Amino acid sequence: MTSLTRTIGALVLTAAAALSVTACSAAATGSPAPSTSASATPSKGKAKPLPAGESRVAGTVATVSASQLTVTKKDGSTETLTTDPATKIEGGPLQQGQRVTAVVKGDQALTVRVAQPHASSAAPTTTPTS
Q1: Whole-number CA gyration radius for the chain
Q2: What CA dihedral angle connects 22, 27, 31 and 35, to 10 degrees?
Q3: What is the 3-class SS of 56-109, one letter each residue?
Q4: What residues are paired with 102 via a beta bridge?
Q5: Closest Cα partner for 84 from 67, 103, 70, 100?
Q6: Buried b (16+ CB within 10 A) or exposed e, 78-115
Q7: In the structure, what pLDDT confidence band is assigned to residue 39 with cuts at 50, 70 and 90?
Q8: How many other C-beta atoms are found inside a 10 Å radius of the C-beta of residue 59?
Q9: 59 forms bridges with which residues in the sheet?
Q10: 72 forms bridges with which residues in the sheet?
């Protein structure tokens, strides 16, 4: 039992020393000590948090009119959003079949971002001439 107690004590001291060295080296270099908590800054590609009461709707434009936009979501359900002159449209005019992401409050679309089509990676084809 004594050797087990010594082993545990040695492990605790080693861990404490490692934390102390990390904190001291971080202070000496001016960089913050590493943290195990989640970063406050969203990583690239992640959507930023929205204000309370707002949400995102993503999908394909099913219908579009001067005052409404119907979006078919990935799960097949549809959501009809109200649009008005204050609705900010980013990425071009809305057309049926486009992929969009909208920020909404209730059923009012605040912003609608049109997804840009991905560039084709296929090599151009050439026709030999004689």
Answers
A1: 27
A2: 40
A3: EEEEEEEEECCCEEEEECCCCCEEEEECCCCCEEECCCCCCCCEEEEEEECCEE
A4: 57, 112
A5: 67
A6: ebebebeeebebeeeebeeebebbbbbeeeebbebbbe
A7: very low
A8: 20
A9: 100
A10: 60, 78
Query: Helix or strand or coil: residue 113?
Result: strand
What global pTM score does this model have? Answer: 0.56
The size of the chain, in residues, is 130
d(C-alpha 52, C-alpha 70), whole Å: 23
Q: How far is the C-alpha of 128 from the C-alpha of 74, rounded, in Å? A: 43
**Main-chain dihedrals φ then ψ at residue 27, nearest 5 degrees:** -65, -35
- Angle, CA of 61, 65 and 68, to the nearest 5°: 75
Query: Tens digits of per-residue pLDDT, 16-37?
Result: 555 555 445 444 555 554 444 4
